[in-house]
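Please fill in the sequence for the structure shown.

STRUCTURE ENCODING:
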């Protein structure tokens, strides 16, 4: 009897959690494949710390530490095509992967909205490689400051972060202290460092509670961050970013704003929202495709884009597939959405945390943020490895010098 073939595309929160849950279910006569273009699971919630000199152990979790490869086949390939009629996926390698059940846990892609020069000249913050490249750039840029004239030095010390969602806020709160430390090591005035956080909306963190947004704004300003709201990015050319008509010279412009769904989902032919995400049904299927499940960043659900949502989606889909295999006559469970905890760090050991209608700030908020980190690690790793990843937050790389 042919094994039931389950193919999962995407090595992020949703895909890996789904694979892990299916592995733990010990399903008979099944073949589980996880297709991803990376051999590691990336904890994007900690990327900002990597830019500021913290250990990559907290961000980069090897898939072999998470998944039992005797139960889940990890395939390092990039899915480039989906044939839902004949039920197979084509990889960039040219290989094809037939499926009976397909799970799409693809992450979002960056959307530059056609702003001139932005894609070519800005730095990203979506992957470990992005964070490491940005960190290297920051160090090299600040190394040159002592020998530069006033204009060049000013340009080097202006850091512009576009997009005041969680990633932009986290980076703004952490990068200033790191850059000031490097500049002080070079015997320059750390107060010359200028962090500019740009947001198109009338407040930062526009999707969160207004009280949280206001409190974190004050915290960032206390750290010396220049917070600019209702500000439009018009262009980025020749190290000059134009913000609502005002040119600003900067060697480092980081784009953390717009995202759109992975282009691969267009091939499903299912209805999509304005961001390209699939409008899934109550069972997390792409409508009309009962054996294709969609979750995480590419599913049009209320809290799509949050790590906790992606983890919950992975568990839900794994349970749906398990039920289909072990008890096909049972009533399918309906997807229920859970509001995530929002924990937004703004500088060392300080966080604003939104838990339902409750808000916590400062060290209490930070402790809750660390609890969220711990929940992520223990969701994927055995206790010992989870603890090692959690503790690595307190480790600093040894290259923090100019």
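FILLED IN BY: designer on duty
SEQUENCE:
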């Amino acid at each position: 009897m042919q094994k039931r073939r389950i193919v999962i595309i995407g090595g992020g929160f949703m895909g890996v959690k789904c694979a892990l849950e299916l592995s733990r279910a010990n399903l008979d006569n099944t073949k589980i494949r996880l297709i991803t273009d990376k051999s590691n699971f990336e904890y994007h919630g900690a990327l900002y710390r990597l830019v500021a000199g913290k250990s990559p152990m907290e961000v980069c979790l090897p898939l072999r530490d998470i998944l039992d490869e005797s139960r889940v086949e990890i395939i390092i390939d990039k899915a480039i095509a989906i044939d839902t009629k004949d039920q197979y996926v084509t990889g960039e390698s040219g290989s094809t992967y037939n499926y009976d059940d397909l799970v799409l846990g693809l992450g979002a892609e960056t959307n530059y909205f056609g702003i001139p020069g932005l894609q070519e000249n800005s730095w990203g913050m979506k992957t470990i490689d992005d964070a490491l490249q940005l960190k290297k750039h920051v160090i090299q840029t600040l190394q040159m400051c002592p020998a530069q004239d006033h204009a060049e030095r000013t340009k080097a010390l202006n850091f512009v972060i576009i997009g005041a969602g969680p990633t932009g806020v986290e980076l703004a709160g952490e990068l200033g202290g790191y850059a000031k430390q490097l500049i002080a090591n070079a015997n320059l005035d750390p107060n010359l460092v200028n962090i500019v956080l740009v947001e198109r909306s009338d407040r930062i963190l526009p999707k969160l509670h207004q009280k949280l947004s206001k409190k974190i704004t004050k915290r960032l300003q206390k750290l010396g961050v220049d917070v600019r709201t209702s500000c439009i990015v018009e262009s980025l050319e020749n190290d000059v970013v134009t913000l609502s008509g005002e040119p600003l010279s900067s060697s480092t412009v980081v784009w953390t704003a717009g995202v759109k769904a992975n282009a691969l989902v267009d091939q499903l032919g299912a209805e999509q929202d304005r961001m390209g995400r699939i409008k899934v049904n109550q069972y997390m299927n792409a409508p009309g495709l009962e054996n294709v499940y969609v979750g995480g960043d590419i599913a049009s659900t209320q809290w799509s884009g949050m790590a906790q949502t992606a983890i919950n989606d992975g568990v839900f889909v794994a349970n749906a597939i398990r039920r289909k295999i072990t008890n096909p006559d049972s009533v399918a469970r309906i997807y229920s959405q859970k509001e995530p905890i929002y924990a937004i760090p703004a500088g060392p050991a300080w966080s604003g945390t939104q838990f339902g209608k409750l808000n916590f700030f400062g060290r209490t908020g930070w402790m809750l943020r660390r609890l969220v980190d711990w929940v992520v690690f223990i969701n994927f790793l055995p206790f010992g490895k989870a603890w090692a990843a959690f503790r690595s937050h307190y480790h600093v790389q040894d290259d923090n010098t100019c």
